[in-house]
Every structure is written in structure tokens, then in C-alpha cells.
Amino acid sequence: MTPESDVTPESEVTPESEATSESDVTTETITTDAGDARITWHHAGRPRLVLAVSHGAGGGIEARDLAALAAVLPAHGVTVALVEQPWRVAGKKVAPAPKTLDTGWRGVWPALTRPGLPVVSGGRSAGARVACRTAVELGAHAVLALSFPLHPPGKPEKSRAGELLGAGVPTLVVQGGNDPFGKPAEFPEGDHELVEVERADHGFAVPRRADLTQEEALHVITDAVVRWTAGLR
Questions:
Q1: pLDDT tens readout for residues 75-110
Q2: Whether the Cβ atoms of residue 78 and residue 47 lie closer than 8 Å to each other
Q3: Residue 99 near residue 131 (C-beta atoms within 8 A)
Q4: Which of 28, 146, 166, 191 is deepest in the core (most CB within 10 A)?
């Protein structure tokens, strides 16, 4: 993985110039069978879609890719709902089993559909797996998989490709070129689109010596999602 000292800190890369105002952001707590979850809504003025995205097993909604999407997508008619799983809201440091993550996601789904708009189910890392596993069951309009963990680092034989290939709805994968959980070339052929962020690791951090800056790497992500959501029917 890219050494921490060789990447741009997340605090330096949020596209603040495109961020929504505080009045466009609301937060609510949702009780689920796995505990209380939290949704932070970044509202579009004239929304046509809701993009619901959750975090991974090692971080929260402050992840650089989730923060960038929340800042950019509302200006393109997409309300972004950043979902914190119950374990994270409770202050625990270790994520529970996948079935418990799925339970938490199911529990917030009625709130995500409340605006009456199509909902794109998404997440990064473990959150992407949840979105894929539950998409058909919940009636997701599409799936956004950020840094999909195709396999544990160094263990390509333990593939999770079945979860991705079984999503059953239009799916966009955005993957770092140096992601130890699965590089773009390792992904199987299937009914999904894959966008590579060159030189990026699992957290979409890029080395300072890379050909693109950290801000440019984030724009690769947001531009891809803006384009893809615009084409959803």
C-alpha cells in the first residue's frame, strides 16, 4: 500500500468550492434491528435521484471519496445520503459480521426511499459489498461500488466476485489502480462498468509523485459518478 507519508492528507482535498451550504445538510437517526444508524442528507435543489452510500469497515463517512460525492452530486440533481452503520454510531472500532451490516442497511432503506425518488445503493469497501448483496431485495435502482474489496490483500483465491456479479442492477465500480483488495485488471467480466483511478490505493489516496494530483483523482471519481447517474433510466 502507498506509505501514508507519501499521500495527500484528506483534509487537503475536499472540493470546498463545490460544497453544499450548511442549510442543505440535515441529519437523522434511524432505529434498525442492528441498532441506531445515522443518515446525513446533502440535499439537491431539484433532486431526481438519491445516492445512498455507506462507509467501509475501517472508517466513516468522512472518507475522501464519500465527502467529494456529497459536495459535488447535489449540484447535478442527486441528493446524497451518507449512511453511518449502527456499529459506527455506537462508537465501536470493529465492524460486525456481514449479515449484521446487511441488517443495518435494510433498516435505513425505508428512510432512503421516503423522498419518493429512485435510490442508488452504494458504499465504499465493506459498504459496497452490502449494496451489492441487498440491491435486488431492496429494489435499488442501481449500485455504486467504491473500492470494492474483490479479495483480502494477498489472497486472490478468496474472491468476492460473486457478490459483485450478483448485484442484479446497473453497477458502476470505481477502483484504485493500486488497490491491494483488487486491482482493476483482476476484476471479472460482467454486467458492470469499471472506472480506474490511476495509482490510487484502497482509500483513493495517490502518491505525491503520481501524474495526477489528489484533487484530480477525486475529480475522476466525481466525474464518473456524475456521468453515470445522468445516464440512469
A1: 999 999 999 999 999 999 999 999 999 999 999 999
A2: yes
A3: no
A4: 146
d(CA 23, CA 203): 29
Q: With contact defined as beta carbons under 8 Å apart, do 124 and 151 qualify?
A: no
Nearest to 159 by CA among 201, 199, 129: 129
Calculated CA dihedral for residues 93, 98, 102, 103, nearest 10 degrees? -70
CA distances to 11, 36, 102 from 144, in Å: 24, 24, 16
Residue 63 DSSP label = S
Place of cell 493500486: 178
**Alpha-carbon distance 142 to 144, whole Å?**
7
Going by C-alpha positions, the residue among 201, 229, 206, 228 that lies closest to residue 217 is 206
Shortest CA distance to 112 belongs to which of 172, 38, 46? 38
Q: Within a 13 Å sphere around the CA of 228, how many CA atoms are in the beta-carbon half?
A: 23
Reported as a single tens digit per residue, the pLDDT across 182-214 is 999 999 999 999 999 999 999 999 999 999 999
The whole model's pTM is what? 0.91
Q: Residue 17's pLDDT band (boundaries 50, 70, 90)? A: very low
How far apart are the C-alpha atoms of 197 and 204, rounded to whole Å?
Answer: 7
